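Subgroup meeting minutes
Present: P.N., E.W., G.H.
Scribe: E.W.

1. P.N. recapped why we're keeping a running log of single-chain structure predictions: easier to compare across weeks, and new members can see raw inputs and outputs side by side.
2. G.H. added today's entry (140 aa).
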Amino acid sequence: MHASRLLFVNAATVAVTMLGGCGSVLSDTTVDPRSPIAAEVARVSRANADFPSFKEIPGRPTDVRPLRAYGEAADVVDTARANLERDTAPGTWSLNNTDAFAAEARVAAGPEATPGNPAATEAFAQDLRARATPPPPPKR
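Output recorded in log:
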């Protein structure tokens, strides 16, 4: 209880300090007349400017779906999620007919490549070993 009261007091102190600082900074500032926005600032910052009233707030838009429709759309998404989790839960599916699938994949892949000659592979590796240059010894 004491900690939450202390937190509130600290937050309120920070807010008052920040807002108080903003008011003094904004009221004392002047715009450089050579600035490209000086004319716009002077026009917008008139002291006797008209403030909007509550009757000037626009009405509700008519082309927006009703609030209840948002909840119904969320229910549809939740139902789809639950169905997906139910259908893909562990133990709810198994692999069947994998031989037929593998046969189709082999046909789609084309003819099998013949393995290379092991003697030619070993001769190639021996040639690379013979041409390889060992790294220089470390400097001591």
